[in-house]
Every structure is written in C-alpha cells, then in structure tokens.
Write a structure and sequence with these properties.
By secondary structure, the chain is of the alpha+beta class. It has helices spanning 8-11, 35-40, 98-127, 156-171, 180-187, 217-247, 268-287, 296-308, 311-362; strands spanning 17-28, 32-33, 46-48, 62-64, 75-81, 85-96, 131-132, 139-148, 190-191, 198-201, 205-209. 50% of the residues lie in helices and 17% in strands.
Length: 363
C-alpha cells in the first residue's frame, strides 16, 4: 500500500500559536485640552508617559486611568493629547491555529469597536471642563496589530511560506482565502531584521512575528494619531471650501466694505492664516516627536506605517485644498480691498466737496 505524503505546509495547519491582538483607537474630541488644569484636578488619575528612546519629550501626552477599568481589563493604555485627542490601546490574548485566528480576530474587532467608544466617552466626560470646543467625537481612527509569539520551530520565512494565505486574510479581516493578486499585495510589504523575524504592515492591520515587538508598538500608535489629525484637518478644509461656495451668494454687511473697520466684519486672509498656523503647529508637533537617526530597521518600519496609512497622501490632499482656498480667499480679499479703496476715495471726495461748499457759503 502506497504511503500518503503530506507537505510541511499542510501538516502545520493544525499548529496552535499564541500571542496578542493590539488595537489602537484614537478620538478627536475638541480643539485643545488644558493640561495644566488636568494635572491639578483631584478627580483624575493622571501620570506622565514613559516615552521610549525613539521619542522626544516634546509635548508629550498624559496617561489617564479609565474610570471603569474593571469593565475593560484588556486596556493597557489610555492617553490624553494636548491638541484635543484621546488614544486607547487594548491588548487581547489569543491562542489558535492561523485558520482559527481569521474568525477570532474579526470577533475581537467587533467586540472592541463599541467598547472603545464607551471607554473614550467615559474619559471625555471627566475631561469635559478642561476641553476647548468639546465634541464627542469629531473623528475616530483605529489600527489593529496581530502579534504572534516566536516558536523555535518556525523562523520568519517559514511563517510566511506555510501560513501566508491565512495571514493575508487576517490582515484584510476576511475568513475566505484571498486571490493570489491580493495575497501578493499584502505579503510583498513584509520586513524583518533577522531571519526569525517577519513583519507585515497593511492598510488596516499589521502582523508581527518578532520577539522585540514591544519596541514597535509606539510607532503604530503614533501613526494612528497622525492619521486622525490629518483626516480632521482634511475634513476641516472641506468645510472651508463649502463655506467659500456659500459665501458667493452671501451678502456682507455694509460696514464690511468700509476701510479701517471692515476687517472686523470680514477678514478671509486673517482667518486663513490662523487655520494654516493651527495645521502647521500640530502636524509639526507630531512629526518632530520621533527620532530615528541611525536606526535603519526602525526607520524602515515607520516608513511602512506612513506608506500604508496613506499619511503622505493625506498631507498632499491638505496642501492641495489649502492652496485652492488660499487662491479663492485672496481673490475675494482683493475684491473687498478694491471696494474699500473706492469707498475711501468716495469719502475723501465728499469731504473735499463739503469743505468747498462750506468755504463758498462763508464767502
């Protein structure tokens, strides 16, 4: 009788792996959080953030304890960011085959989506008195990281070869096997420092098979926060563009056309400058918070995060929309300035005429 042969790829499908699912959530809840007032509050359990060696102590966020931590035992981190954001990180243990992980990761994601909102809302209510222009919530962003503990029997290359189909499906939150094209698209973005390492960073989730994964978590949290703020400013500029369109049909008060006092009623360039400053300050604060000079491996990881979270395209979108708004507002401002000059000239002529009439009457 002929013996049945199984490929290593088939025989390892029943292998159980352990690890964790990390979920990074970020909420934009206001224009600014008064950190000094937060620190002085006796109702909040606040502590400074222990930053890794790759981050500058530059406008560092504050750790805050969840009001109902017992209801979210897998919450390992909650932070306040001075520019009006809350970030929460969850760490959920998993132990399953790669085939089983496909449905388990989806179930965890579905459970923690609403839980993150409830936890963020609990924090928001506590910091409401210290938040400028509060609103829960303007926008939300989130990112998932699947971390698998290293097994001495499998190096990174073997994990990719044996379980590539399952990993690609997990990262796209699918239970069915992806097409070859989709699979290649996901797996080609893999990186690793040693042969035993295997890291894939995709658009909505990442897979990490690396014993030093703890050092990478902050990069994913930062990328998620950057995406949140860039989306917020992009949406803000959309509103500005809509407002410009509506302004074409809006009648300004007559005083807006008067020199010296008109800018009090209508000053589009001044408003635009303030918006530009706000965007520049926060984006620069986020970009300058990281230092990776001489760290080739970590720079590559961070570059992959920036690429897959589409951060550069968000920046370009913001710049493009800002340029359009700037051109329209400057054109509109020039028209208003011309009208103000005409009004000023007319007033001067009227004053001269009055002086002439008065002089004639006196004579």
């Amino acid at each position: 009788m002929e013996k049945e042969h199984h490929s290593p790829k088939t025989s390892y499908q029943s292998q159980v792996f352990s690890g964790h699912v990390y979920m990074f959530f970020a909420f934009d809840i206001g224009e600014d959080i008064n950190f000094e007032a937060v620190k002085q509050s006796k109702d909040l359990n606040i502590s400074p953030v222990n930053l890794s060696k790759f981050f500058k102590n530059y406008h560092a966020p504050l750790n805050i304890e969840l009001p109902d931590h017992d209801k979210s035992p897998h919450c390992i981190d909650a932070k306040l960011h001075q520019f009006g954001a809350i970030s929460i990180t969850y760490k959920v243990p998993v132990s399953n085959t790669f085939q089983g992980l496909k449905s388990q990761v989806i179930a965890i994601d579905e459970e923690y989506q609403p839980r993150s909102i409830n936890d963020a809302l609990a924090i928001y209510k506590r910091i409401l008195p210290f938040t400028a222009k509060p609103n829960f919530f303007h926008l939300r962003s989130y990112y998932t990281l699947i971390q698998i503990d290293c097994d001495k029997n499998f190096n990174g290359t073997q994990i990719k070869d044996y379980f590539g189909n399952e990993i690609a499906a997990i990262l796209r939150f699918e239970t069915q096997t992806l097409s070859e094209h989709q699979k290649r698209e996901v797996l080609t973005s893999s990186v690793g420092y040693f042969k035993k390492d295997f890291i894939i960073i995709d658009t909505e989730a990442a897979f990490i098979y690396d014993p030093q994964h703890i050092e990478l978590l902050d990069f994913f949290e930062l990328g998620n926060i950057q995406q949140l703020e860039l989306q917020y400013f992009d949406k803000l500029l959309d509103k500005q563009m809509t407002a410009i369109y509506e302004d074409k049909n809006r009648k300004l008060p007559i005083l807006a056309y008067f020199p010296f006092i008109g800018s009090h009623y209508f000053d589009p360039v001044g408003e635009l400058t303030k918006l530009k400053v706000d965007i520049s300050v926060i984006t620069e604060r986020l970009e300058n918070s990281i230092k990776l000079v001489g760290e080739t491996y970590y720079s590559e990881i961070y570059d992959e995060i920036v690429l897959n979270l589409d951060l550069e395209n968000w920046k370009q979108s913001i710049e493009k929309k800002f340029k359009i708004i700037k051109e329209v507002q400057y054109d509109y401002q020039n028209k208003i300035d011309t009208t103000r000059e005409d009004v000023l000239t007319t007033l001067i002529i009227i004053l001269i005429m009055i002086e002439l009439i008065v002089a004639i009457i006196k004579h």
